[in-house]
Protein backbone atom coordinates (compact mmCIF):
# COMPACT_ATOMS: atom_id res chain seq x y z
CA UNK A 1 0.00 0.00 0.00
CA UNK A 2 2.80 2.41 0.90
CA UNK A 3 4.58 1.75 -2.40
CA UNK A 4 1.35 2.35 -4.32
CA UNK A 5 0.62 5.71 -2.66
CA UNK A 6 4.21 6.94 -2.88
CA UNK A 7 4.50 5.88 -6.52
CA UNK A 8 1.20 7.58 -7.26
CA UNK A 9 2.47 10.95 -6.06
CA UNK A 10 5.64 10.54 -8.11
CA UNK A 11 3.70 9.51 -11.23
CA UNK A 12 1.27 12.43 -10.87
CA UNK A 13 4.19 14.87 -10.63
CA UNK A 14 5.80 13.30 -13.71
CA UNK A 15 2.45 13.45 -15.55
CA UNK A 16 2.08 17.17 -14.80
CA UNK A 17 5.67 17.95 -15.83
CA UNK A 18 5.35 15.98 -19.08
CA UNK A 19 1.95 17.49 -19.86
CA UNK A 20 3.31 21.01 -19.39
CA UNK A 21 6.52 20.24 -21.30
CA UNK A 22 4.91 18.55 -24.30
CA UNK A 23 1.73 20.63 -24.61
CA UNK A 24 3.17 23.18 -27.03
CA UNK A 25 4.99 20.67 -29.25
CA UNK A 26 2.59 17.73 -29.30
CA UNK A 27 1.40 16.97 -32.86
CA UNK A 28 -2.35 17.24 -33.29
CA UNK A 29 -2.86 13.58 -34.25
CA UNK A 30 -1.19 12.39 -31.02
CA UNK A 31 -2.89 15.02 -28.85
CA UNK A 32 -6.25 13.82 -30.16
CA UNK A 33 -5.34 10.29 -29.00
CA UNK A 34 -4.90 11.49 -25.41
CA UNK A 35 -8.08 13.57 -25.69
CA UNK A 36 -9.93 10.40 -26.75
CA UNK A 37 -8.54 8.48 -23.78
CA UNK A 38 -9.52 11.29 -21.40
CA UNK A 39 -13.08 11.31 -22.71
CA UNK A 40 -13.45 7.54 -22.20
CA UNK A 41 -11.80 7.65 -18.76
CA UNK A 42 -14.09 10.49 -17.68
CA UNK A 43 -17.10 8.38 -18.66
CA UNK A 44 -15.63 5.43 -16.71
CA UNK A 45 -15.27 7.61 -13.61
CA UNK A 46 -18.87 8.81 -13.88
CA UNK A 47 -20.04 5.20 -14.20
CA UNK A 48 -17.98 3.93 -11.26
CA UNK A 49 -18.43 6.76 -8.75
CA UNK A 50 -21.94 5.73 -7.57
CA UNK A 51 -20.69 2.13 -7.28
CA UNK A 52 -17.65 3.33 -5.32
CA UNK A 53 -19.93 5.17 -2.90
CA UNK A 54 -22.17 2.13 -2.36
CA UNK A 55 -19.30 -0.38 -2.27
CA UNK A 56 -17.24 1.48 0.31
CA UNK A 57 -19.76 3.32 2.48
CA UNK A 58 -22.17 0.41 3.09
CA UNK A 59 -19.61 -1.96 4.73
CA UNK A 60 -17.94 0.98 6.55
CA UNK A 61 -21.21 1.95 8.26
CA UNK A 62 -22.21 -1.70 8.77
CA UNK A 63 -19.03 -2.34 10.75
CA UNK A 64 -20.16 0.22 13.33
CA UNK A 65 -22.66 -2.43 14.44
CA UNK A 66 -19.83 -4.43 16.02
CA UNK A 67 -19.85 -1.98 18.93
CA UNK A 68 -22.74 -0.28 20.61
CA UNK A 69 -23.66 2.09 23.41
CA UNK A 70 -22.85 5.59 24.47
CA UNK A 71 -19.16 5.33 23.59
CA UNK A 72 -19.97 4.54 19.96
CA UNK A 73 -22.46 7.42 19.70
CA UNK A 74 -20.05 9.83 21.37
CA UNK A 75 -17.14 8.82 19.12
CA UNK A 76 -19.18 9.10 15.92
CA UNK A 77 -20.71 12.42 17.01
CA UNK A 78 -17.40 14.02 17.97
CA UNK A 79 -15.63 12.73 14.84
CA UNK A 80 -18.37 14.01 12.54
CA UNK A 81 -18.49 17.31 14.44
CA UNK A 82 -14.74 17.69 14.04
CA UNK A 83 -15.02 17.00 10.30
CA UNK A 84 -17.83 19.56 9.97
CA UNK A 85 -15.83 22.13 11.92
CA UNK A 86 -12.82 21.57 9.66
CA UNK A 87 -14.96 22.12 6.56
CA UNK A 88 -16.81 25.18 7.89
CA UNK A 89 -13.70 26.86 9.31
CA UNK A 90 -11.91 26.21 6.02
CA UNK A 91 -14.79 27.89 4.20
CA UNK A 92 -14.47 30.97 6.44
CA UNK A 93 -10.68 31.22 6.14
CA UNK A 94 -10.68 30.49 2.40
CA UNK A 95 -13.32 33.14 1.69
CA UNK A 96 -11.23 35.63 3.69
CA UNK A 97 -7.83 34.76 2.21
CA UNK A 98 -8.32 33.44 -1.33
CA UNK A 99 -10.11 36.46 -2.91
CA UNK A 100 -7.05 38.60 -2.11
CA UNK A 101 -4.44 35.89 -2.66
CA UNK A 102 -5.89 34.89 -6.04
CA UNK A 103 -6.98 38.39 -7.03
CA UNK A 104 -5.15 38.45 -10.36
CA UNK A 105 -6.57 35.07 -11.41
CA UNK A 106 -10.12 36.04 -10.31
CA UNK A 107 -10.21 39.46 -11.95
CA UNK A 108 -8.38 38.52 -15.17
CA UNK A 109 -9.64 35.58 -17.22
CA UNK A 110 -7.07 32.98 -18.17
CA UNK A 111 -5.80 33.83 -21.62
CA UNK A 112 -5.82 31.01 -24.09
CA UNK A 113 -3.44 30.59 -27.01
CA UNK A 114 -4.54 30.61 -30.60
CA UNK A 115 -4.43 26.81 -30.55
CA UNK A 116 -7.75 25.14 -29.83
CA UNK A 117 -8.06 22.22 -27.43
CA UNK A 118 -7.37 18.77 -28.84
CA UNK A 119 -10.49 17.12 -30.26
CA UNK A 120 -11.03 13.41 -29.52
CA UNK A 121 -11.26 10.99 -32.42
CA UNK A 122 -14.49 9.59 -31.00
CA UNK A 123 -16.45 9.51 -27.76
CA UNK A 124 -18.27 6.76 -25.88
CA UNK A 125 -21.03 7.35 -23.35
CA UNK A 126 -22.04 4.72 -20.79
CA UNK A 127 -24.49 6.01 -18.23
CA UNK A 128 -24.21 4.98 -14.54
CA UNK A 129 -26.90 2.76 -13.05
CA UNK A 130 -27.94 5.61 -10.72
CA UNK A 131 -26.81 9.11 -9.77
CA UNK A 132 -24.54 10.12 -6.91
CA UNK A 133 -27.20 11.39 -4.48
CA UNK A 134 -29.37 8.24 -4.71
CA UNK A 135 -26.18 6.21 -4.21
CA UNK A 136 -25.36 8.15 -1.03
CA UNK A 137 -28.87 7.77 0.40
CA UNK A 138 -28.99 4.07 -0.52
CA UNK A 139 -25.55 3.40 0.98
CA UNK A 140 -26.35 5.22 4.19
CA UNK A 141 -29.73 3.50 4.74
CA UNK A 142 -28.49 0.01 3.89
CA UNK A 143 -25.38 0.51 6.02
CA UNK A 144 -27.50 1.48 9.04
CA UNK A 145 -29.73 -1.53 8.48
CA UNK A 146 -26.76 -3.90 8.31
CA UNK A 147 -25.28 -2.34 11.44
CA UNK A 148 -28.46 -3.30 13.31
CA UNK A 149 -28.56 -6.82 11.86
CA UNK A 150 -25.02 -7.65 12.84
CA UNK A 151 -23.56 -10.70 11.08
CA UNK A 152 -25.64 -11.51 7.99
CA UNK A 153 -25.38 -12.87 4.47
CA UNK A 154 -26.13 -9.45 3.00
CA UNK A 155 -23.39 -7.96 5.16
CA UNK A 156 -20.89 -10.44 3.71
CA UNK A 157 -22.11 -9.61 0.19
CA UNK A 158 -21.64 -5.89 0.92
CA UNK A 159 -18.12 -6.54 2.22
CA UNK A 160 -17.25 -8.64 -0.86
CA UNK A 161 -18.62 -5.93 -3.14
CA UNK A 162 -16.54 -3.38 -1.24
CA UNK A 163 -13.45 -5.51 -1.81
CA UNK A 164 -14.23 -5.61 -5.55
CA UNK A 165 -14.57 -1.82 -5.64
CA UNK A 166 -11.32 -1.40 -3.72
CA UNK A 167 -9.63 -3.72 -6.22
CA UNK A 168 -10.95 -1.67 -9.17
CA UNK A 169 -9.74 1.58 -7.59
CA UNK A 170 -6.33 0.16 -6.77
CA UNK A 171 -5.72 -1.78 -9.99
CA UNK A 172 -7.66 0.19 -12.62
CA UNK A 173 -8.51 3.78 -11.62
CA UNK A 174 -5.38 4.72 -9.68
CA UNK A 175 -2.90 3.35 -12.29
CA UNK A 176 -4.71 5.26 -15.07
CA UNK A 177 -5.08 8.53 -13.13
CA UNK A 178 -1.60 9.85 -14.05
CA UNK A 179 -2.35 9.34 -17.75
CA UNK A 180 -5.67 11.16 -17.31
CA UNK A 181 -3.92 14.04 -15.51
CA UNK A 182 -1.23 14.10 -18.19
CA UNK A 183 -3.93 14.49 -20.84
CA UNK A 184 -5.60 17.33 -18.92
CA UNK A 185 -2.34 19.29 -18.46
CA UNK A 186 -1.34 18.54 -22.04
CA UNK A 187 -4.60 20.07 -23.24
CA UNK A 188 -4.38 23.06 -20.86
CA UNK A 189 -0.82 23.79 -21.98
CA UNK A 190 -1.85 23.52 -25.63
CA UNK A 191 -4.65 26.02 -24.92
CA UNK A 192 -2.34 28.38 -22.97
CA UNK A 193 -3.97 27.95 -19.52
CA UNK A 194 -1.34 26.08 -17.56
CA UNK A 195 0.97 28.88 -16.34
CA UNK A 196 -1.77 30.54 -14.32
CA UNK A 197 -2.96 27.17 -12.96
CA UNK A 198 0.49 26.11 -11.67
CA UNK A 199 1.05 29.53 -10.10
CA UNK A 200 -2.20 29.09 -8.18
CA UNK A 201 -1.25 25.55 -7.11
CA UNK A 202 1.72 26.79 -5.09
CA UNK A 203 -0.34 29.45 -3.32
CA UNK A 204 -3.14 27.04 -2.42
CA UNK A 205 -0.79 24.34 -1.08
CA UNK A 206 0.97 26.85 1.21
CA UNK A 207 -2.29 28.14 2.68
CA UNK A 208 -3.70 24.63 3.19
CA UNK A 209 -0.57 23.49 5.05
CA UNK A 210 -0.91 26.44 7.47
CA UNK A 211 -4.62 25.66 7.97
CA UNK A 212 -3.72 22.06 8.87
CA UNK A 213 -1.40 23.32 11.60
CA UNK A 214 -4.05 25.70 12.96
CA UNK A 215 -6.65 22.91 12.98
CA UNK A 216 -4.38 20.60 15.00
CA UNK A 217 -3.58 23.35 17.51
CA UNK A 218 -7.30 24.06 17.96
CA UNK A 219 -8.14 20.35 18.36
CA UNK A 220 -5.53 19.90 21.07
CA UNK A 221 -6.53 23.09 22.88
CA UNK A 222 -10.00 21.51 23.19
CA UNK A 223 -8.48 18.16 24.22
CA UNK A 224 -6.23 19.89 26.76
CA UNK A 225 -9.22 21.72 28.25
CA UNK A 226 -11.07 18.42 28.75
CA UNK A 227 -8.05 16.58 30.13
CA UNK A 228 -6.76 19.60 32.10
CA UNK A 229 -3.33 19.15 30.55
CA UNK A 230 -0.96 21.31 28.49
CA UNK A 231 -2.35 21.07 24.91
CA UNK A 232 1.07 21.58 23.32
CA UNK A 233 2.57 18.72 25.34
CA UNK A 234 -0.31 16.52 24.24
CA UNK A 235 0.26 17.54 20.62
CA UNK A 236 3.98 16.83 21.03
CA UNK A 237 3.17 13.36 22.34
CA UNK A 238 1.18 12.64 19.16
CA UNK A 239 3.96 13.80 16.81
CA UNK A 240 5.32 10.25 16.15
CA UNK A 241 1.90 9.39 14.71
CA UNK A 242 1.99 12.58 12.61
CA UNK A 243 5.37 11.79 11.07
CA UNK A 244 4.52 8.11 10.59
CA UNK A 245 1.43 9.17 8.62
CA UNK A 246 3.57 11.52 6.52
CA UNK A 247 5.54 8.47 5.39
CA UNK A 248 2.78 5.89 5.06
CA UNK A 249 0.04 8.21 3.70
CA UNK A 250 -2.40 5.77 5.30
CA UNK A 251 -4.58 6.23 8.40
CA UNK A 252 -4.97 2.45 8.70
CA UNK A 253 -1.22 1.77 8.53
CA UNK A 254 -0.57 4.37 11.26
CA UNK A 255 -3.10 2.92 13.76
CA UNK A 256 -0.48 1.06 15.89
CA UNK A 257 1.56 4.23 16.37
CA UNK A 258 -1.54 6.36 16.99
CA UNK A 259 -2.71 3.87 19.61
CA UNK A 260 0.63 3.82 21.43
CA UNK A 261 0.94 7.62 21.50
CA UNK A 262 -2.68 8.12 22.62
CA UNK A 263 -2.04 5.83 25.58
CA UNK A 264 1.15 7.78 26.38
CA UNK A 265 -1.00 10.92 26.39
CA UNK A 266 -3.08 9.40 29.19
CA UNK A 267 -5.97 7.82 27.28
CA UNK A 268 -7.42 4.73 29.00
CA UNK A 269 -6.48 1.52 27.20
CA UNK A 270 -10.10 0.52 26.54
CA UNK A 271 -11.00 3.94 25.17
CA UNK A 272 -7.92 4.05 22.94
CA UNK A 273 -8.42 0.52 21.63
CA UNK A 274 -11.99 1.37 20.64
CA UNK A 275 -11.79 4.98 19.44
CA UNK A 276 -8.51 5.11 17.49
CA UNK A 277 -9.33 2.38 14.92
CA UNK A 278 -12.88 3.73 14.58
CA UNK A 279 -11.68 7.33 14.09
CA UNK A 280 -9.21 6.12 11.46
CA UNK A 281 -12.33 5.23 9.47
CA UNK A 282 -14.76 8.06 10.21
CA UNK A 283 -12.62 11.09 11.20
CA UNK A 284 -11.11 12.82 8.16
CA UNK A 285 -10.95 16.45 9.18
CA UNK A 286 -7.63 17.04 7.40
CA UNK A 287 -8.89 15.53 4.15
CA UNK A 288 -12.09 17.57 4.35
CA UNK A 289 -10.04 20.74 4.90
CA UNK A 290 -8.00 20.08 1.76
CA UNK A 291 -10.99 19.32 -0.42
CA UNK A 292 -13.04 22.33 0.70
CA UNK A 293 -10.11 24.74 0.27
CA UNK A 294 -9.25 23.43 -3.21
CA UNK A 295 -12.90 23.53 -4.28
CA UNK A 296 -13.31 27.15 -3.17
CA UNK A 297 -10.07 28.26 -4.84
CA UNK A 298 -11.05 26.70 -8.18
CA UNK A 299 -14.60 28.08 -7.99
CA UNK A 300 -13.35 31.61 -7.25
CA UNK A 301 -10.88 31.47 -10.13
CA UNK A 302 -13.66 30.63 -12.57
CA UNK A 303 -16.22 33.10 -11.30
CA UNK A 304 -18.51 30.42 -9.87
CA UNK A 305 -20.85 31.24 -6.99
CA UNK A 306 -19.48 30.24 -3.57
CA UNK A 307 -22.49 30.96 -1.37
CA UNK A 308 -22.61 29.66 2.20
CA UNK A 309 -25.84 27.62 2.14
CA UNK A 310 -24.91 25.41 -0.87
CA UNK A 311 -21.41 24.96 0.56
CA UNK A 312 -22.88 23.99 3.94
CA UNK A 313 -24.84 21.21 2.25
CA UNK A 314 -21.73 20.12 0.35
CA UNK A 315 -19.60 20.03 3.53
CA UNK A 316 -22.27 18.07 5.42
CA UNK A 317 -22.45 15.46 2.63
CA UNK A 318 -18.67 15.42 2.33
CA UNK A 319 -18.39 14.44 6.00
CA UNK A 320 -20.55 11.36 5.31
CA UNK A 321 -18.84 10.53 2.02
CA UNK A 322 -15.40 10.62 3.63
CA UNK A 323 -16.29 7.44 5.55
CA UNK A 324 -15.48 5.57 2.33
CA UNK A 325 -11.98 6.97 2.07
CA UNK A 326 -9.54 5.15 4.40
CA UNK A 327 -7.48 2.19 3.26
CA UNK A 328 -7.79 2.94 -0.46
CA UNK A 329 -4.95 4.87 -2.14
CA UNK A 330 -6.42 8.14 -3.35
CA UNK A 331 -9.72 6.94 -1.88
CA UNK A 332 -10.70 10.22 -0.22
CA UNK A 333 -10.73 12.26 -3.40
CA UNK A 334 -12.25 9.39 -5.40
CA UNK A 335 -15.08 9.07 -2.87
CA UNK A 336 -15.60 12.85 -2.84
CA UNK A 337 -15.38 13.51 -6.58
CA UNK A 338 -18.97 12.33 -7.08
CA UNK A 339 -20.54 15.05 -4.92
CA UNK A 340 -17.99 17.60 -6.17
CA UNK A 341 -19.33 16.92 -9.66
CA UNK A 342 -23.02 16.58 -8.83
CA UNK A 343 -23.40 19.31 -6.18
CA UNK A 344 -20.85 21.86 -7.46
CA UNK A 345 -20.90 21.17 -11.19
CA UNK A 346 -17.19 20.46 -11.69
CA UNK A 347 -16.33 19.27 -15.20
CA UNK A 348 -13.61 16.76 -16.12
CA UNK A 349 -10.85 19.39 -16.23
CA UNK A 350 -11.70 20.72 -12.77
CA UNK A 351 -11.99 17.18 -11.41
CA UNK A 352 -8.47 16.43 -12.68
CA UNK A 353 -7.17 19.62 -11.05
CA UNK A 354 -8.83 18.58 -7.77
CA UNK A 355 -7.25 15.13 -7.95
CA UNK A 356 -3.81 16.62 -8.69
CA UNK A 357 -4.03 19.13 -5.84
CA UNK A 358 -5.28 16.51 -3.40
CA UNK A 359 -2.61 13.93 -4.21
CA UNK A 360 0.12 16.60 -3.97
CA UNK A 361 -0.90 17.15 -0.31
CA UNK A 362 -2.09 13.64 0.53
CA UNK A 363 0.48 12.94 3.25
CA UNK A 364 -0.24 16.20 5.12
CA UNK A 365 -3.98 15.54 5.17
CA UNK A 366 -3.49 11.97 6.43
CA UNK A 367 -1.10 13.19 9.13
CA UNK A 368 -3.66 15.76 10.25
CA UNK A 369 -6.37 13.09 10.33
CA UNK A 370 -4.51 10.60 12.53
CA UNK A 371 -3.10 13.23 14.90
CA UNK A 372 -6.62 14.56 15.38
CA UNK A 373 -7.70 11.00 16.24
CA UNK A 374 -5.48 11.31 19.31
CA UNK A 375 -7.25 14.51 20.35
CA UNK A 376 -10.65 12.80 20.07
CA UNK A 377 -9.40 9.84 22.14
CA UNK A 378 -8.21 12.26 24.85
CA UNK A 379 -11.63 13.98 24.95
CA UNK A 380 -13.47 10.65 25.12
CA UNK A 381 -11.21 9.37 27.88
CA UNK A 382 -11.85 12.51 29.92
CA UNK A 383 -15.63 12.37 29.39
CA UNK A 384 -16.08 8.70 30.27
CA UNK A 385 -13.69 8.93 33.21
CA UNK A 386 -16.01 11.58 34.71
CA UNK A 387 -19.06 9.41 33.93
CA UNK A 388 -17.52 6.44 35.75
CA UNK A 389 -16.62 8.60 38.74
Radius of gyration: 21 Å
What are the segments in which pLDDT stays under 50 over at least 5 consecutive residues? Answer: 1-6, 109-114
The helix/strand order is HHHHHHHHHHHHHHHH
From the 3D structure, determine the CATH topology: Proton glutamate symport protein
Count of individual helical segments: 16
| Domain module count | 1
Main beta-sheet annotation: none
What is the average per-residue confidence, as pLDDT, rounded to a whole number? Answer: 81
What characteristic shape results from the CA principal axes?
globular
How much helix, percentage-wise, in residues?
over 70%
User: How far do the termini sit from each other?
Assistant: 43 Å
| Beta-strand content estimate | under 5%
The secondary structure category is: mainly alpha
Give the number of DSSP strands: 0
CATH class: Mainly Alpha
CATH architecture: Orthogonal Bundle
Amino acid sequence: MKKITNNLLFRVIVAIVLGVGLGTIMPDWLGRFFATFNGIFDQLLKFLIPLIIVGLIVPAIAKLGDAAGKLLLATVGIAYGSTLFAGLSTYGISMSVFPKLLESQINEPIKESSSAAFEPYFSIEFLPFFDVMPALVFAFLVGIGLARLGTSTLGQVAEDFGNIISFLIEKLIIPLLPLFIFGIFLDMTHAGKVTAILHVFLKIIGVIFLMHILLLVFQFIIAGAFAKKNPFKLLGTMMPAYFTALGTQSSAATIPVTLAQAKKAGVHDEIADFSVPLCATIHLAGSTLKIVACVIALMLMQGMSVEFVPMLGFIAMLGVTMIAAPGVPGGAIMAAIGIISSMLGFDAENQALMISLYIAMDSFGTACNVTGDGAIAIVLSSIFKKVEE
